[in-house]
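Deliverable D5.2: sample structural annotation.
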Amino acid sequence: MLSVRERARAVLAAGSAAVFAAVVTLGAAGPAHASATGSTAIGTFEYDVRGMGVKVPVGCFFTHSIKGSGKRIESQLAGVDCAGLAAAFSSFCNWRIDFSYADTDNRTYRTSRGATRPECKGDPLRRAGARMLPKYGKACAKFHVNGKLRAVQCHYITR
């Protein structure tokens, strides 16, 4: 039986494949009417945890998946996946994932701040439930490690 995390990863992978296939087939992305998934590479960086240096190598990606229609968001999921050597050697300590919402003038009007997790994990993950947005604009997921913003991935919410 698959764990919740394994099922979530499978959904993210399937969503990424579907989005990629749609973009290749259509040639360009249009407004999201049902769902969207996107990833951004997390560059290499170093940080200290209790006086010990931690280095995150190249090969990790921050993925944000959103399901809904128009200003109605049914659910969101954001997490980190690493490949190759990064999968074996990456650890994120004191991490947090926030969901933020901005209007069409790029003014952030709401942030759902995630809890800072003191444990070190190779695959941080956060879910958010349903919400109705008051404005069109964009929904973003933001990944923080040890108090610093390390990656952002956004989806535009349009009519």
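Annotation notes: The longest strand covers residues 72-82. The chain has one domain: 4-157.
The annotation will be released with the project's public dataset once the embargo ends.
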